[in-house]
Design goal:
The complex is a heterodimer of chains A (about 500) and B (about 325).
Chain A lengths: L1 H13 L2 H19 L5 H14 L4 H26 L10 H10 L3 H33 L5 H13 L9 H15 L2 E3 L4 E3 L13 H20 L17 H23 L4 H17 L10 H17 L1 H7 L5 H12 L8 H4 L1 H22 L3 H7 L4 H20 L2 H19 L5 H23 L11 H41 L1
Antiparallel strand pairs in A: 1-2
Chain B lengths: L1 H19 L9 E5 L6 H15 L7 E5 L6 H10 L6 E6 H8 L11 E17 L7 H10 L5 E4 L6 H12 L9 E4 L3 H9 L5 E5 H9 L3 E6 L25 E9 L4 H16 L1 H9 L3 E6 H21 L5
Parallel strand pairs in B: 1-2, 1-3, 5-6, 5-7
Antiparallel strand pairs in B: 3-9, 4-7, 4-8, 4-9, 4-10
Helix pairs in contact in B: 4-11
The chains are: A mainly alpha (about 500), B alpha/beta (about 325).
Chain lengths: ~500, ~325
């Protein structure tokens, strides 16, 4: 009941004209970013952070804008998957399997509409899940002392590679790089300077917002310059939509199953949206496999992964808001933004910043409806936007990034840092080292170090405190499972994903 | 009608009188450096005082707030010392955090005598709190426990080790006669809220911070304030919180909000700014700002403030040396 009151109050925040406007802008930009191949939700949010700063938005408005971008990107990813057989972002990869065949059969509009409805259901159910689960988890999170937090951060690092990650060594290298950068500055547990070389500007360490914008947004520009792409991603045409109620009812059970599975995958730290969409698709194929024609344009093959990845995206917000531990790359970026806004995620967020949290949650619901409208009647707009040459887009992105970063602190040094991180990001991506672990290392490193030291201070130096509660032992078990499972399950899952794609390509060639 | 005309005449003549008594003419516009990102305490000090300075026509034009974050105020301090000497149209926001860092030599090669401390107009007072089910009912009970075993109570706060939140515990413990101050355990968190969460969750016993940080948690019943470190009880919603002093422990810890000027400003300019700070502090506009933002009464200006800062720096330096933070 109390939750309902908070939610109603949240709606009064979310429905303020200013916030509605930012939700709409976020949904629009997010869908566009998701639709453009290569630009994923993490990049999208990173690119818009400077915009939020340069407009001087309030914490609520900033978070509404950025979470709408996040949700929009999850919707948008399917557009190029279905029309061009190029996933707009990683989680949308499974959508190509049945989406593109549907488009080949002249049913692109139906595929887009069904996937939008599935996305809507996934997002809606996961938001309801968030509303129910988050306050409970937040209350429970008070039991988390430094030892439990240390175990939890270890869990976040252990599951970093995720089940779909390719090269675990590169993931470790990236995380270590992030941890190293995070040691620069004053060590608050002792008050000592580390790696500051008496340079005043380094005393507070390296700002992770600058690192995020550099690594994601600036490196994107460098990649663009290298590729010299002057054309759009290709043009696509849409047929006239012919969708009956029975078609929607046909995919409804699929969407519901996908949503639940996706939400669970999202809540688990490290798993994220890609796993959500993969699991949903696989499960669906197993359940209705015989009666369907998966891989050849079955509408349920479009609905399952889209419901899964949208649900996972919202599910990943649960650990981020309640524990301050991000469940995915994009939520890591959102977490960095919250901290920059002087909002401390964690157990007390739901009581001390109730207006902000519930405003953002209500905005997720409002934004979801906006996204459904944007993605069914207005989907043609995005199809046209897909053919905008990036040569107009990328300079705008870079301009926004530079202005935004400068407006945070009026310091030219920050701009040099941003460019430096851009070069680093370019280099790392060339070497196929993932960027998200770098950010997580920077973000979680200091917290993890502090938790360990606090635990040892409390226990007067006795290391056994780390394993002294049932809760911490439970987290350690999950962490070790998270570390070991990718080596066992990873190759199997990846092979299946590749097989599924390869099979489809063979069939395509046979046509 | 007639009365308001008379008031106006009186006011103008007063303004005329004050402006005549100084040879110094303030610049048309001024600049206020907030040594942190927008949204923090220093930013608030600059923006709110700046607005009143132009509203009350101390400054004809605008007072522009410039954010200059870095090194906990060190970047702005270095900038003021090295580039702005003698600039009479510049204010820099400061607080106890500034004096703490200066006292501990964290702004390498710089000290408090390199600028002119012009005045403070309000403070947030230190507070020591415990969770609602803590066995400690008052400050003396807590201090007695520390006297028996300095490691028996672990404190958490939002500043780094050796920072102002850490020092508040030590100031109180020292005043209460606790020996072995370096043994008292302090856990540094990145914000007061995070430390409070750990106290409420029962993982650590004591919270040290500013009174504005605990208000929400005291109202919700999660925290119990053992002592406010002010001269006398604070007004308004804070009136129920006992002071350390009334419990026989003479520990005062104001986190004041004020300004310094660059070195080399002429005496008449320093005097003008001193009187101006006095005027702002006395104005109704400022009283309203203080009330809205939970600022407590605290006012010192000119030579009195300079002496206060020097004394505070000395005390912090002694305390930091005693706990082995500086050598």
């Amino acid at each position: 009941m109390e939750t309902l009151n908070f939610l109603l109050h949240g709606f009064s925040v979310a429905l303020m004209p200013e916030h509605l406007m930012f939700a709409a802008i976020g949904a629009l930009l997010g869908t566009l970013i998701g639709a453009l191949p290569g630009l994923g939700p993490a990049n999208g949010v990173a690119i818009l952070i400077p915009l939020a700063f340069s407009l001087g938005l309030s914490p609520a408005a900033s978070m509404i804008l950025l979470t709408s971008v996040y949700a929009g990107a999850m919707y948008g990813g399917r557009i190029s998957s279905i029309l061009l057989n190029i996933p707009g972002d990683e989680p949308a990869m499974m959508t190509t399997l049945d989406g593109y065949p549907m488009a080949m059969q002249g049913k692109a509009a139906e595929a887009l509409a069904i996937s939008a409805i599935a996305s809507f259901i996934g997002s809606l159910l996961a938001t309801i899940g968030l509303i129910i689960l988050a306050p409970i988890l937040a209350r429970f999170a008070l039991h988390f002392g430094p030892a439990e937090y240390f175990a939890l951060f270890s869990l976040a690092f252990a599951t970093l590679g995720g089940v779909t990650g390719k090269n675990q060594v590169k993931t470790v290298v990236a995380a270590a790089l992030g941890l190293m950068i995070s040691t620069v500055g004053v060590d608050i547990s002792t008050g000592n300077q580390r790696y500051t070389y008496n340079i005043l500007e380094l005393y507070e360490g390296v700002d992770f917002i600058i690192a995020i914008v550099g690594l994601f947004a600036v490196s994107e520009l460098l990649f663009f310059i290298e590729r010299h792409i002057s054309e759009g991603a290709g043009s696509a045409t849409l047929n006239k939509l012919n969708l009956k109620l029975s078609d929607i009812l046909h995919v409804l059970p699929t969407s519901l199953r996908g949503s639940v599975l996706g939400f669970v995958a999202g809540v688990l730290p490290g798993a994220g949206a890609s796993l959500g969409s993969f699991l949903s698709y696989s499960l669906e194929k197993r359940i209705v496999g015989k009666s369907g024609h998966f891989g050849q344009g079955d509408p349920r093959g479009v609905a399952a992964p889209e419901a899964g990845n949208n649900a996972a995206a919202n599910g990943a917000l649960v650990p981020m808001l309640t524990l301050g531990v991000p469940g995915s790359g994009t939520t890591a970026v959102l977490l960095a933004m919250l901290i920059s806004l002087n909002v401390q995620p964690g157990p007390m967020l739901f009581t001390q910043n109730a207006e902000l949290v519930w405003g953002v949650i209500a905005a997720l619901l409002v934004g979801n409806i906006m996204l459904l409208i944007l993605n069914i009647p207005m989907v043609g707009l995005f199809v046209k936007l897909l053919s905008i040459p990036p040569k107009y887009l990328m300079p705008v992105v870079t301009l926004i990034a530079a202005v935004g970063i400068y407006s945070i602190s009026n310091s030219a040094l920050d701009l040099y840092f941003m460019v430096g991180f851009g070069l680093l990001g370019y280099l790392l991506r060339k070497l196929e080292v993932p960027l998200v672990p770098v950010i997580l290392g920077m973000l979680l490193g200091p917290e993890m170090e502090r938790s360990l030291r606090h635990a040892l201070t409390i226990s007067d130096g006795d290391w056994s405190i780390l394993f002294s509660s049932g809760l911490s032992i439970g987290i350690w078990v999950v962490a070790f499972a998270g570390l070991a499972l990718p080596y066992i399950l990873g190759p199997i899952l990846r092979r299946r994903m590749e097989n599924a794609r390869a099979r489809m390509e063979i069939e395509e060639e046979a046509d | 009608m007639q009365r308001s005309v008379r008031k106006l005449l009186l006011a103008t003549s007063l303004v005329f009188a004050t402006s005549q008594s100084f040879a110094f003419e303030p610049a048309r516009s001024a600049e206020c450096i907030a040594p942190a990102n927008p949204g923090g305490g220093w930013d608030f000090t600059c923006r709110s005082v700046g607005k009143i300075l132009s509203d009350l026509k101390y400054i004809d034009g605008n007072v522009q707030t410039v954010n200059m974050p870095g090194a906990g105020g060190g970047v702005a301090f270095a900038h003021t010392v090295s580039k702005r000497e003698g600039d009479t149209a510049l204010l820099v926001a400061a607080s106890t955090a500034t004096t703490t860092r200066l006292a501990q030599g964290q702004f390498v090669g710089m000290n408090a005598d390199q600028v002119k401390w012009v005045g403070a107009l309000g403070a947030d007072y230190g507070v020591i709190a415990v969770s609602k089910d803590s066995p400690y009912k008052d400050l003396n009970a807590l201090m007695d426990a520390l006297k028996e075993d300095p490691t028996s109570v672990k404190f958490g706060g939002g500043s780094a080790a050796g920072g102002w939140d850490h020092l508040k515990v030590l100031i109180a413990a020292k005043a209460a006669g606790v020996g072995n101050l370096p043994k008292i355990k302090y856990l540094a968190y990145s914000g007061g809220g995070e430390a409070i969460t750990q106290v409420v969750g029962g993982h650590i016993e004591g919270f040290t911070g500013d009174v504005s940080e605990v208000l929400g948690f005291v109202e919700s019943g999660d925290l119990r304030v053992l002592a406010v470190m002010s001269e006398e009880r604070l007004p308004g919603q804070y009136a129920d919180m006992p002071t350390a002093k009334e419990q026989g422990i003479d520990a005062i810890a104001p986190n004041w909000r004020g300004f310094y000027l660059p070195a080399g400003v002429p005496d008449d300019a320093f005097e003008w700014w001193t009187k101006t700070i006095d005027g702002v502090y006395a104005s109704d506009n400022w009283k309203q700002v203080m009330q809205q933002n939970g600022l407590m009464p605290f006012h010192k200006s000119g030579p009195e403030f300079t002496a206060f800062v020097q004394q505070q720096v000395k005390e912090i330096r002694d305390l930091s040396t005693e706990i082995g933070l500086i050598k």
